[in-house]
Amino acid sequence: MGGCFSKPKPVELKIEVVLPEKERGKEELSASAKGSPRTYQGNGTARHFHAEERLPAPHPYPGAQDYVEAAVCHIKDLENGQMREVELGWGKVLLVKDNGEFHALGHKCPHYGAPLVKGVLSRGRVRCPWHGACFNISTGDLEDFPGLDSLHKFQVKIEKEKVYVRASKQALQLQRRTKVMAKCISPSVGHSGSTNVLIVGAGAAGLVCAETLRQEGFSDRIVLCTLDRHLPYDRPKLSKSLDAQPEQLALRPKEFFRAYGIEVLTEAQVVTVDVRNKKVVFKDGFKLEYSKLLLAPGSSPKTLSCKGKEVENVFTIRTPEDANRVVRLARGRNAVIVGAGFLGMEVAAYLTEKAHSVSVVELEETPFRKFLGERVGRALMKMFENNRVKFYMQTEVSELRAQEGKLKEVVLKSSKVVRADVCVVGIGAVPATGFLRQSGICLDSRGFIPVNKMMQTSVPGVFAAGDAVTFPLAWRNNRKVNIPHWQMAHAQGRVAAQNMLAQEAEISTVPYLWTAMFGKSLRYAGYGEGFDDVIIQGDLEELKFVAFYTKGDEVTAVASMNYDPIVSKVAEVLASGRTIRKREVELFVLHSKTGDMSWLTGKGS
């Protein structure tokens, strides 16, 4: 592969900490989400630190009083493949028995705190029941996304047929572990016009790329630039919780970026990329040379093109400020949402308790129709109608009318006039790749950046990830697809970083996404585009169901509500390379009144 890094030089030795034998193999020491220093790693190798990195005071090794140890069960209490939450006094631990061995890990998913005991254990890892993140049971390491942090791994010993777990009290309370990372040993002072790695876009793909480079020992300069005025934040929360403040949404605190030498340029717009000279130019004229480039610019929301489109109080939700203003304007007033996709429906659900009225305008017959199908879409629509949301379907906006410049009415093509003080437009997005048109980097006819399995663009040394790419989806015969979802952006950012370091990693993750409305979550895994049938088990009216999307005789996607952990189970099966056949699902629906899922993992008949 042309133009890739050779393996990075190890971080220069300033302090060497080699742990005594008995302390090795436990990475649970000082792990706050702020990326505090680590003095050891799971495999017991020495780690190297900078002098200014503080070792835990006053002693590098905590005393016995910082640990808790207890017998948690008899060795026969757990069968192989079983998981159990056990109490250690200072917190709970997830105990796992796999292939005759016991493992003890943090019990909550660091992403949003899901109880992992309700997840899926398979192939040496546990998958979160809520959003599909995967953790290695031997190391606690995060192996699939979403989220940034790993789990603590605790010591297990067997004595007199009893299982004992030993854990640090701090780790039990923190429930997350930030991986050991290198620091930057070539800060920008004196040569700020060049960087080793430049990342354009600070969403999930950009941040995970930067963190992965540091986790893999890369210690040269990394610059992350974003159009936003904020450090990387949890964008999926914007439409689910519009009141959230930027600091509540931040994925990492300011100190984290400082500690690991990840420079973030906010409100920084790249206008040209010169791949021949490996240089980018910003809107303010600043030029920056790079040796590796990741393009993760995301997408730009589509806007209305009707009469009155320049009226005030019409929003596309891109930033926390947009979301906050919408809530403020909607309180006790009339809100109109254009578009019944994920963003529109999440906003509508959130505003029902705040606004006087909430109306949704959509071109299709039912919400989510292309994504979830007619029947599921209708069941969700009913839930919204029960919460006072009014739908105007199979129509679109023909005019926005103002009074003193501010929105007053939304006129529909059906000639219906809807009162509106605020309007949110969620009618899809286009890749934000205009700045690449003259760059020589290949774009497709819709403006997406095509990449291979290694996230490499048509230009060596230039990688791309996130909402703006099309990539080969491994388990759908390498079909080139665009999957603009949070979890996928994480996975692609990681693969891009690994390949910047010439590790020859390939993207293979199974897409996983979720939505939350009225306190209920819908989970989805797979890639169902073009499905020709939907098989439903459970009760749609009660919103307790699982829907299998099929094409020909193959299951291509699954969605569920109140049916955990079925979506994570299907994701695990698909990730293992097994095809789920339509007839398997039909037999299950025909014969199963119990909701037994053992057929999926091959444990049942």
UniProtKB/TrEMBL annotation:
GO terms for MF: 2 iron, 2 sulfur cluster binding; metal ion binding; oxidoreductase activity, acting on NAD(P)H
Coiled-coil ranges per UniProt: none
Keywords: 2Fe-2S, Apoptosis, Electron transport, FAD, Flavoprotein, Iron, Iron-sulfur, Metal-binding, Mitochondrion, Oxidoreductase, Transport
Domain named Rieske: residues: 70-165
PANTHER family named in the record: APOPTOSIS-INDUCING FACTOR 1, APOPTOSIS-INDUCING FACTOR 3
Family label: Belongs to the FAD-dependent oxidoreductase family.
Functional description taken from the UniProt entry: Induces apoptosis through a caspase dependent pathway. Reduces mitochondrial membrane potential.
Protein name, UniProt field: Apoptosis-inducing factor 3
